[in-house]
TrEMBL record:
<feature type="domain" description="AB hydrolase-1">
    <location>
        <begin position="30"/>
        <end position="269"/>
    </location>
</feature>
<protein>
    <submittedName>
        <fullName>Alpha/beta hydrolase</fullName>
    </submittedName>
</protein>
<feature type="region of interest" description="Disordered">
    <location>
        <begin position="1"/>
        <end position="22"/>
    </location>
</feature>
<dbReference type="InterPro" id="IPR000073">
    <property type="entry name" value="AB_hydrolase_1"/>
</dbReference>
<dbReference type="GO" id="GO:0016787">
    <property type="term" value="F:hydrolase activity"/>
</dbReference>
<dbReference type="InterPro" id="IPR029058">
    <property type="entry name" value="AB_hydrolase_fold"/>
</dbReference>
<dbReference type="Pfam" id="PF00561">
    <property type="entry name" value="Abhydrolase_1"/>
</dbReference>
<keyword id="KW-0378">Hydrolase</keyword>
Length: 291
């Protein structure tokens, strides 16, 4: 029978030179690192609590809160910039040399940075949106525009409008789920941190796609780890055509697209997501001999 895990029962804190990093831990076996996305009220638990029991059956599953999110330390810089140093601090503090990494959105971006700049630390890479360059879609995308509108004027209605853009099937946005995100998102400290990442200035930067395009393309070619890119076909935050560049340039790359799915594949297509990702992560395991 699959174990049930609670927030309190899995909650842990690691002290690092930059400040405390909060994370959740469940399961035994080889380590697996899960990295959450960005957005109002997000945390490792908010993104991956539903997937934790399945992954914990096979892995010592570690779900990290980035600086500026959840219960980790607040960051002075843009949380995207603070993310990679925090992951390195976490791996070092946990005495983990190399791990498979699953990253959603911003977490996928930071996981890709880790795999590109420190290839010895990543054995397999799985991303859920958040990687690549849009080829056909306009920039900034609808989901990011709605996110900035919430950050600049944080009301529950604007939060709900943004959350509806995150999914294909809005019925998954239960009152309990929305209330959890609203409580976390309306915290003044959390709002201050998320505003460092999403604001009118960042929207203007996204309109100029060419600024860092060459650097991003170059980084993709340096990822040595076998990589699985997953996307929701109806993603309105990182549109599916963003997958075409990394799918072609990452040397050992596969692409899986979930139909009728938005930006939160691990929530909206939970069973299929877990099946696809577990199958990919477990490829390295040798089958036990039949007796």
């Amino acid at each position: 029978m699959m174990a049930e895990f609670t927030f309190e029962g899995t909650s842990r804190t690691l002290q690092t030179p930059r400040g405390p990093l909060h994370y959740h831990e469940a399961g035994d076996g080889p380590p697996l690192l899960l990295l959450h996305g960005s957005g109002p009220g997000v945390s490792g638990w908010a993104n991956f609590q539903g997937n934790l029991p399945v992954f914990a059956e096979h892995f010592r599953t570690l779900v990290l809160d980035f600086p500026g999110f959840g219960k980790s330390y607040s960051c002075e810089d843009n949380p995207m910039i603070a993310g990679l140093p925090a992951v390195l601090d976490f791996l070092d503090g946990m005495s983990l040399d190399s791990v498979p990494v699953v990253g959603n959105s911003m977490g996928g971006n930071i996981a890709a940075q880790l795999a590109s700049r420190h290839p010895e630390r990543v054995t397999r890479l799985v991303t859920i949106g958040g990687i690549g360059l849009p080829v056909f879609s306009p920039s900034p995308p609808e989901g990011i525009k709605l996110l900035v509108q919430f950050v600049e004027d944080p009301t529950r209605e604007r939060l709900m409008t943004w959350m509806e853009a995150m999914v294909y099937d809005t019925s998954i946005l239960t009152e309990e789920f929305v209330e959890m995100r609203w409580r976390a998102a309306s915290d003044p400290a959390a709002l201050a941190d998320i505003k460092k990442l999403f604001n009118f200035r960042s929207l203007a930067a996204m309109r100029n796609r060419g600024t860092n395009a060459a650097e991003q393309v170059g980084a993709l070619t340096k990822i040595q780890a076998p990589t699985l890119i997953t996307f929701g076909r109806d993603d309105r935050v990182t549109p599916m055509d963003s997958s075409l560049v990394p799918m072609r340039l990452i040397p050992k790359c596969e692409l899986h697209v979930f139909y009728d799915c938005g930006h939160w594949a691990m929530i909206e297509r939970k069973d299929e997501f877990e099946s696809v990702v577990l199958s990919y992560l477990l490829r390295d395991r040798k089958l036990a001999p039949v007796l």
